[in-house]
Amino acid sequence: MIPELLQLQKDYFKTGETKSIAYRKQLLKQLKVELVKRESEITSALHNDFKKPVFESVISETANVIAELDLTISKLAEWTKPKRIVPSLLNFPSSDKIYSEPYGTVLIISPWNYPYQLAFVPLIAAIAAGNTAVIKPSELTSNTSKTIYDIITTVFKPEHASVVEGGISVSSTLLSQRWDYIFFTGSVSVGKIVAKAAAEHLTPTTLELGGKNPCIIDETANIKLSAKRIVWGKFLNAGQTCIAPDYILIHKDVKQRFYDAFKTEIELAYSKNPMQSEDFARIVNSKNFDRLERMLRNENCVIGGKTNAGTLYISPTVIDEPKLDSEVMKDEIFGPILPVISYTNDTEIDNIVSTYDKPLSLYVFSTNSAKSKKWVQTYSFGGGAINDTVIHFANHKLPFGGVGNSGIGAYHGKLSFDTFSHKKGIVKKGNWLDLPFRYAPYKGKLKLIKIILKWLQ
Ligand code: NAD
User: Fold this and answer.
1) For 360, phi and psi rounded to 5 degrees?
2) Do the beta carbons of residue 10 and residue 105 sit within 8 Å?
3) What is the pLDDT along the chain (457 residues), one digit of tens a residue?
4) Is ligand 1 within 6 A of the CB of residue 331?
5) Å from CA of 169 to ligand 1 middle
6) What's the rounded Cα separation, in Å, for the pair 285 and 287?
7) 134 Cα: distance to centroid of ligand 1 (angstroms)
8) Residue 172 beta carbon below 6 angstroms from any ligand 1 atom
9) How far, in Å, from the CA of 98 to the mean position of ligand 1?
10) Cα 266 vs. chain centroid, distance in angstroms?
11) For the chain, how long is the longest CA-to-CA vector?
12) Does residue 247 contact residue 341 with C-beta atoms inside 8 Å?
């Protein structure tokens, strides 16, 4: 079935219909109508999948998909227009242009943690750029996966965009095919599987992966506000956010004040018993619950540390001074557990941050601009924020993506369109003049060509 679907899409792409800009725009508009109409169905599916609060679904899933759609619809004519480039005098007389052309048939594999927007934002760009697309949503959020299937089936012909549901075996079959582009969001380990499969066919890829995101709080930080913003960014989606702060490095002089403020902010956000709060999501499945629960063993939980396997609940938790070789400091946490390690000087920060691969995000809380700038410039990471968490995601003008182990490529806004477009450079040469210097025989021309090349530099 998968090879047949792919062939169907390849044949359809060849007809050229997806290249019509008017048609792309019309489909994106139809998609918007469908997404707006189904908003409550989408938020219900997310709630059924892991008790994601409706408010969080709107701010982190549906609203940004609509924003991305609106932007794409309004800018499509501008983005698709061949871009005139200043020609090189070496080619005189000429006019140069960059054409954005679709790759062809693209595969989008998405994860479960933001299962709706991480499927739709790439899809919108893929269609806008004139490709056909197959989406493979995560099997762990089956309600959202089904909703995505229903929406795509309603708006698109299968040869233009399709959803293939399923788990690892379906994903592996998809990856064994020859695609023109693969856009993968998920874990580092699966990212490597995707990269290997893509290499087999030399298929270009975007890999949106994860990592261990440090959050540095120095002695000059506004502690109360820092605590409030970290509570929000860490416990949004119950900590199951690729760009959530993973661990805190805090100056020892402000640690206790931070703990007091952090506890207060958790209570203000989720009450004294977050298990009863409608605003706190659950862990996606028991495998992840068990993985997270193991991190709590033998640790000093100064806040939270409560779990309930039956409801997949883990309370907002702070672990005080875990060892670097402890379970919680090994890999990306991806849950509502926040280890806090104190430091006294910058070398200690450096020793810890440098232990890990390049993270997807890094956050600095400080009122010392020079120091904040230094940290942001010293470390290599995908993107981040000073004096806040997660919010860099919201500006479509900022590239969103990792570096090194946290990913390859970036998207959002115009960059999403560019990601799914091959940029073709074309020189249109004039015939009214044909300068003789470059042509053989070369005898006697070397000196002159050197002068010309130098002059043109
Ligand atoms: P995952 O890698 O387990 O799964 C992602 C997708 O890959 C799913 O659709 C899944 O079915 C498929 N898959 C799983 N195992 C596979 C295999 N062996 N072969 C082929 N396909 C396979 O990731 P997840 O648990 O769904 O998501 C969590 C991870 O995603 C975290 O590491 C997180 O940091 C990362 N993430 C990154 C971003 C980003 O934008 N950079 C966003 C969200 C999540």
Assistant:
1) -75, -35
2) yes
3) 999 999 999 999 999 999 999 999 999 999 999 999 999 999 999 999 999 999 999 999 999 999 999 999 999 999 999 999 999 988 999 999 999 999 999 999 999 999 999 999 999 999 999 999 999 999 999 999 999 999 999 999 999 999 999 999 999 999 999 999 999 999 999 999 999 999 999 999 999 999 999 999 999 999 999 999 999 999 999 999 999 999 999 999 999 999 999 999 999 999 999 999 999 999 999 999 999 999 999 999 999 999 999 999 999 999 999 999 999 999 999 999 999 999 999 999 999 999 999 999 999 999 999 999 999 999 999 999 999 999 999 999 999 999 999 999 999 999 999 999 999 999 999 999 999 889 999 999 999 889 988 988 7
4) no
5) 14
6) 6
7) 16
8) yes
9) 34
10) 27
11) 87
12) yes
Rounded distance, CA 385 to CA 388, Å?
6
Backbone angles phi, psi at 84, to 5 degrees: -75, 135
Closest ligand 1 atom, residue 288 Cα: 25
The CA 307 to ligand 1 mean position distance, Å, reads 24
Is-contact 214 360, C-beta < 8 A? no
3-state DSSP call for residue 413?
coil
The three-class DSSP label of residue 411 is: strand
DSSP state of 205: E
CA-186 nearest atom, ligand 1:
30
Cα 323 to chain centroid, rounded:
30
**Which among 171, 193, 416 is the best mutation to test ligand 1's pocket, defined by most ligand atoms within 8 Å of the CB?**
171
Question: Does the beta carbon of 187 lie inside 6 Å of ligand 1?
Answer: yes
Residues whose CB falls within 8 Å of the CB of residue 437, separated by 6 or more in sequence, listed in order: 445, 448, 449, 452
Cβ–Cβ < 8 Å for 227, 424: no
Residue having the nearest C-alpha atom to atom 32 of ligand 1: 187
208 catalytically annotated: yes
Tell me the β-bridge partners of 123. none
8 A C-beta contact, residue 357 and residue 211: yes
Q: Is 242 an active-site residue?
A: yes
Q: Which residue has the tokens 């490095």?
A: 249
